[in-house]
Design a protein that fits this description.
heterotrimer; A alpha+beta; B alpha+beta; C alpha+beta; B: alpha+beta; Aldehyde Oxidoreductase, domain 4; Aldehyde Oxidoreductase, domain 3; seven-stranded mixed β-sheet; six-stranded mixed β-sheet; 35 strands; C: alpha+beta; Ubiquitin-like (UB roll); DNA polymerase, domain 1; five-stranded mixed β-sheet; 5 strands
């Protein structure tokens, strides 16, 4: 309940923030939403020397839709901003489906998507979404900016690929080339529960054929699972029931769940399978309706 | 003169708005953590990370070095003052701070008192404890296995992990019934460990004043007078120099009845430091160490005649009490009122055997709106009834109806020896069935089935004993379970009422005044109610097990009648007639032969101070202590309908219907609030809420990420109905109600899910019916147990 | 000389980081010198003696600590006091005016939306933010908005009724 002692700085610019991280020599942590970091501090699972609060840095709280369809989410864009976004519905069904399922409505007022990616909790929903959409993170350090594909960005449980003096400033979801459909399903026993299993599915289609697909899994491995084989099985054809079933099986196989108080490993695989089928079937059905 | 309108003055049956709301909606509640005393220090407890381990050494030196630390207490220091162990409410002992061993994960090992809780926590982290791990026991099977490690090696004459063996009922008669049975229905299940988890955790502020020798303790307690006595005995302080103040409580549900080590340590710390010491428990401490609920196994058997008549019942229960037997329950009944099971059914013979065991888990076993194990009793009952009806191939409603005690069969002696005095069980069930649309639902169910959807309906009917209890049979540590009310009517006709109960949200400040209004005609808004301060409240045994309306409420009625009897004499004096010529109507005495000549109760009050008849003691104040002649017997029918997703095991509630009879309802709005709260807890336990353990004794469920409470989103809506059968012996015909829905509710949900998956042949899935358990039942077609240890990959 | 009438607090050791935080609470500017690790909930409760904000858990689940931060509900146990520097906080004590209760407070009393009262401040503030944004919510929208605030006593049904009562009153329809 009571965090350990730390120093605190509230820089007003990214350069200042990066400088503080650099001087902190690896013992500093960035504070954005704080909805993952502060609970860790309260449980004393983390003891940084210095907290660098970036909430005072202007110009980071955006999420925008570029003319070409790219989505950019700034470091201080809150989950609630995405949940209530007018930009996402229709254009980004996977993000729109996931946003309301993050934590609870009050936490969503503070927590950030970029922060969630950095926290790299295997239970984190956004990592699956951004992985399925093939997104990347823009990191800024003393040497400038670089992009890190999200599949590489999350490098292990609670480990990300940032250098100690880098800040993740933006998450980028690439413009779909075909028509983007998909969604996010999460088995949570109540609002705010960790996922027993979560599945993000994104498919892009042109002319009735799937041109790109992404399937990523929450909570069924030591970190977010990018079910590439399952996604590949969908590419190059229509969304038939057979292909859907095959993708679902491959996704279940890609999962590496643990048997614990949320269920057996087999059960969690079953949830993965079921959710993939349901998400893809919904997409296939809506295409039929539209046709 | 027209008589007063009882509803208008806030008497019985009025849904008057709550008095306590005025401060709570302004954020001006006075919960113990809101209290700040000059010079107050703050205490944090260091808890054991291991479930069973010998303590080799404790090094507190680094803790003492931290600036702002005032005192570091260990078990050794407590032992030097004879305070390392304390008696429990069940005649066992419990460690205050561990000395030789820790016996459950989360057990209190040391305490730091510092200038603020942040520093106290820093200092706790700096204490180094050297543990030598010992083998861990997480369920009674392990406790009772030959060669099991001895958990309570501190107790002389304890050679195993058995806490008690207990038995009630008629073994021979029951054996004969089973010999005659056409069919025996059997059921084995586990009612998992749960926790009351009131939103406000436990805590205390102990303030020992060296100059006056008075000890004042603000404490989250549902039974302040019991605490006062316990502190007097344990700390060896004079009882009249101890003041326990239980202020506003953020919920109790039984969690705030036991005496916790934190209270005792804070008291000693205050005595040693001569400053107030505040201990605020955190949620992890609350869930991992304080009075839990349930954790009891049933083996049940029912002897049946082929036409559906129940001939006899056998129950064997094995209960898990953790490391110390600290149940709060009447001392004669080792497994509480478990033998109140089957009270609503007319059963000729029954036999119950009960065994309690020690395990390496938090101590206790009785809490959480459970009415002394009645929750378990009624759950077992209705699960066995469901299984029996299924085994016979009978309709669930029909089976119950056929076996209910009939309306004119009262008083009725149950096979376990209780005396029920009234009931209309069939009417209650029929109302429920009509409200849910029982026949229609069966059609819907069949039709949905044909489309691959699983619907189910579950019934739970019961009568339960509330209002412990009469002095012949009920006591806690020898203290009889009466309760009390003290009423002072001031000269302006306003009144101050204090009782020995302790509200935790039940609305006593509102409802007790309604009883006074009913008895005396003083408007409820003119009656102020206070509870919780042992310096002013008459001695009572506190509020739990739904005993307040039956016992303290009765005391309120009785003391009001004492006042009215004296007021009658004053009225006669004022009206210059003899007492035999006086009649009473609400708020007014009048002359029988001249009804226009009368005096109000307020005029009598003034007269008590200014115009007494010769020889009468002045004043209009009195106290009543009430020893209830019997328990009260509310009854209920709860029905839930659900839909189960066969591919994920997730189930959703469609509707919940509740029909409750709690006799005369003092405040219908408040009664309904209690029922809805109880139904939510029932849903929670059936669906998601439990504490379990892995094989190493690690507690899973020691925080709200693992111990799941439903939010407004998952919680279903409730449709409430009523039957009113006044209690024949209670002064105002009321019965208890606070815990009924928690007692009867869970079986309705479980029975509904089991009904939905009936075709699998599965007879039991342990609560909570988590998606993976339901899925396993559906796909593997076998019963699913939830007993610890939790399955894992290792 | 006011300091003579306050309890004399010890000077923090020189290695303890201390920051000044200035914020507006319930319309009033207040300041305090705090350690960065102090939780906002504790600044409100202990620092400013606004004890209407409660703490009920240690994993950011229960919402008893909910306050409005620049008008939006946040869990004050999961914010640092120093983060409130320059910001606006509304606690339950800021709901009523000197003479009038907020319709939400009235609604909770009218519809028996509270029993022990511990979750109530957080519930009411979340509800206020909801109604400020959505004056005519459905029952589902109310339940969804409140799904970050736990209650152990009421079963939520009357809380929902209380919020809908307040919504109607705010729309002038009571």
């Amino acid at each position: 309940m009571y965090p350990p002692r730390f120093r605190y700085e509230a820089p007003r610019s990214l350069d200042e923030a990066i400088g503080l991280l650099h001087d902190g020599g690896g013992e500093a942590k960035v504070l954005a939403g704080g909805q993952s970091l502060i609970p860790l501090l309260k449980l004393r699972f983390a003891s940084p020397d210095l907290l660098v609060d970036i909430n005072g840095i202007a110009g980071l709280d955006y999420h925008q839709l570029d003319p070409d369809g790219t989505i950019r989410v700034g470091a201080l864009c809150r989950h609630a901003d995405l949940e209530h976004s007018t930009l996402l519905p229709g254009k980004q069904p996977v993000m729109a489906a996931a946003a309301p399922l993050i934590a609870d409505p009050i936490v969503r007022n503070r927590g950030t998507l970029v922060g969630s990616l950095c926290h790299a909790d295997p239970q984190g929903d956004w990592a699956s979404v951004v992985t399925a959409l093939g997104g990347h993170v823009v990191a800024q350090g003393p040497g400038g900016r670089r992009t890190i594909p999200v599949a590489d960005f999350v490098s292990g449980p609670f480990q990300n690929a940032l250098a100690y003096d880098e800040i993740a400033v933006e998450a980028v979801i690439p413009a779909p080339r075909g028509e983007l459909a998909g969604g996010y399903l999460k088995l949570e026993r109540r609002v705010g529960d960790f996922a027993t299993a979560g599945v993000a599915v994104a498919v892009e289609r042109s002319g009735g054929s799937v041109s790109r697909a992404g399937i990523a899994l929450t909570g069924v491995g030591s970190s977010t699972i990018n079910a590439t084989d399952a996604a590949q099985a969908l590419v190059g054809g229509a969304l038939s029931a057979d292909r859907i079933a095959q993708a679902a099986d491959l996704a279940a196989q890609a999962a590496q769940p643990r048997t614990d108080h949320r269920g057996s490993a087999d059960f969690k695989r079953q949830i993965v399978r079921t959710f993939v089928v349901r998400l893809l079937t919904r997409v296939a059905d809506s295409e039929e309706k539209a046709a | 003169m027209t008589a007063l309108d009882e509803i208008k003055i806030g008497g019985l049956g009025s849904s008057r708005k709550r008095v306590e709301d005025n401060r709570f909606i302004r954020g001006k509640g006075n919960y113990f953590d809101d209290v700040v005393l000059p010079g107050m220090l703050h205490m944090e407890i260091l808890r054991s990370p291991l479930a069973h381990a010998r303590i080799r050494s404790i090094d507190t030196s680094k803790a003492w070095d931290i600036p702002g630390v005032r005192l570091v207490l260990t078990g050794e220091m407590m032992a030097a003052r004879n305070l390392a162990w304390m008696p429990t409410l069940s005649y066992d002992t419990q460690a205050v701070l561990a000395t030789d061993k820790v016996r459950f994960q989360g057990q209190e090992v040391a305490a730091v008192i510092a200038d603020d809780p942040y520093i106290a926590k820093d200092a706790c982290e700096a204490i180094v404890v050297d543990y030598e791990p010992l083998p861990v026991i997480v369920n009674p099977t392990q406790s009772l296995a030959p060669g099991a490690p001895l958990i309570r090696d501190d107790k002389e004459n304890q050679h195993d992990n058995v806490v008690f063996d207990w038995e009630v009922g008629d073994k021979d008669g029951t054996d004969r019934a089973f010999e005659q049975a056409d069919l025996v229905s059997r059921l084995d299940l586990h009612y998992p460990r749960s926790h009351p988890s009131p939103l406000e955790c436990c805590g205390s502020i102990a303030d020992f004043n060296r100059a006056t020798s008075k000890l004042t303790v603000y404490m989250t307690t549902q039974a302040p007078h019991i605490i006062r006595a316990a502190v007097a005995l344990v700390a060896e302080l004079p009882e009249q120099m101890i003041r326990i103040i239980s202020p506003d409580l953020g919920g109790g549900f039984g969690n705030k009845v036991p005496v916790y080590p934190g209270y005792v340590v804070s008291i000693l710390a205050s005595i040693l430091l001569e400053r107030p010491v505040k201990w605020v428990e955190d949620r992890s401490g609350n869930l991992i160490s304080t009075g839990f609920a349930r954790d009891i196994y049933l083996h049940g058997e029912m002897a049946l005649r082929k036409d559906g008549k129940i001939l006899g019942v056998r129950m064997h229960t094995t209960s898990d009490h953790g490391a110390f037997f600290s149940d709060a329950q009447p001392s004669k009944f080792k497994i509480g009122l478990m033998h109140s099971a089957f009270s609503c059914y007319d059963i000729p013979a029954a036999h119950l055997t009960a065994r309690g065991t020690y395990t390496n888990k938090a101590p206790g076993g009785v809490a959480y709106r459970c009415s002394f194990r009645v929750t378990e009793a009624m759950f077992f009952q209705e699960r066995m009834v469901q299984a029996a009806a299924d085994d016979l191939g009978m309709d669930q409603a029909e089976f119950r109806r056929m076996n209910f005690v009939k309306d004119d069969d009262f008083p009725h002696r149950t096979p376990y020896g209780f005396l029920t005095d009234s009931g209309q069980y069939r009417k209650c069930l029929d109302l429920g069935l009509e409200a849910i649309g029982y026949q229609d639902f069966q059609k819907q169910k069949a039709e949905a089935k044909s489309r691959g959807r699983l619907l189910g309906i579950g019934i739970s009917t019961m009568t339960e004993p509330l209002g412990a209890g009469n002095s012949r049979e009920y006591d806690i540590l020898g203290i009889k379970m009466f309760d009390s009310a003290d009423l002072k009517v001031h000269m302006t006709g306003k009144a101050l009422l204090r009782t020995g109960a302790k509200t935790q949200g039940q609305g006593h400040e509102t409802t007790w005044a309604q009883i006074v209004a009913h008895e005396l005609g003083i408007p409820a808004e003119d009656v102020t109610v206070e509870e919780g301060d042992t310096d002013t409240a008459p001695f009572g045994m506190g509020t739990y097990a739904s005993r307040s309306t039956p016992v303290a409420g009765a005391a309120v009625a009785m003391v009001s009648r004492k006042i009215r009897a004296k007021a009658r004499k004053l009225a006669a004096h004022l009206l210059e007639v003899s007492e035999e010529d006086i009649e009473w109507e609400l708020g007014r005495f009048y002359v029988r032969s001249a009804p226009n000549r009368g005096v109000s109760i307020q005029e009598c009050a003034m007269a008590a101070y200014s115009n007494m008849p010769d020889g009468m003691e002045p004043g209009l104040e009195n106290t009543a202590y009430y020893d209830p002649p019997n328990l009260t017997w509310p009854f209920a029918c709860y029905i839930a309908t659900v839909e189960v997703d066969p591919q994920t095991g997730v189930w959703d509630v469609l509707r919940v219907v509740a029909v409750d009879d709690c006799g005369v309802r003092i405040n219908p709005m408040i009664v309904e609030g209690q029922i809805m709260g109880g139904l939510t807890e029932a849903y929670a336990m059936a669906n998601m809420q439990f504490i379990t353990f892995d094989a190493d004794g690690n507690c899973i469920g020691s925080n709200f990420m693992d111990y799941l409470l439903p939010t407004a989103w998952e919680t279903p809506g409730f449709e409430l109905h009523e039957v009113v059968t006044p209690c024949p012996h209670h002064p105002i015909g009321a019965k208890g109600i606070g815990e009924c829905a928690t007692v009867g509710g869970p079986a309705a949900f479980v029975n509904a899910v089991m009904d939905a998956i009936k075709d699998t042949g599965v007879r039991n899935v342990d609560m909570p019916l988590l998606p993976d358990r339901v899925y396993e039942a559906i796909t593997q077609r076998h019963d699913v147990s939830g007993a610890p240890p939790v399955k894992s990959d290792d | 000389m006011t300091s003579l009438f306050e309890e004399i607090t010890p000077e923090p050791a020189s290695d303890v980081p201390v920051r000044r935080v200035t914020l507006t609470i319930n319309g009033e500017r207040r300041a305090a010198e705090v350690e960065p690790r102090l939780l906002l909930a504790h600044l409100l409760r202990q620092g400013f003696r606004l004890t209407g904000t409660h703490t009920g858990c240690d994993t950011t689940n229960c919402g008893a600590c909910t306050v409005l931060f620049d008008g939006r509900p946040v869990k004050s146990c999961t914010m640092l006091a120093v983060q409130a520097d320059g910001h606006d906080v509304t606690t339950v004590e800021g709901l009523a005016t000197a003479s009038e209760l907020d319709p939400i407070q009235e609604g909770f009393k009218q519809e028996h939306g509270l029993q022990c009262g511990f979750c109530t401040p957080g519930m009411m503030l979340t509800a206020k933010a909801l109604l400020d944004e959505n004056p005519n919510p459905s029952e589902d929208e109310v339940r969804w908005a409140l799904s970050g605030n736990l209650c152990r006593c009421t079963g939520y049904q009357n809380i929902v009724k209380a919020v809908l009562w307040a919504a109607a009153k705010r729309r002038g329809e009571s």
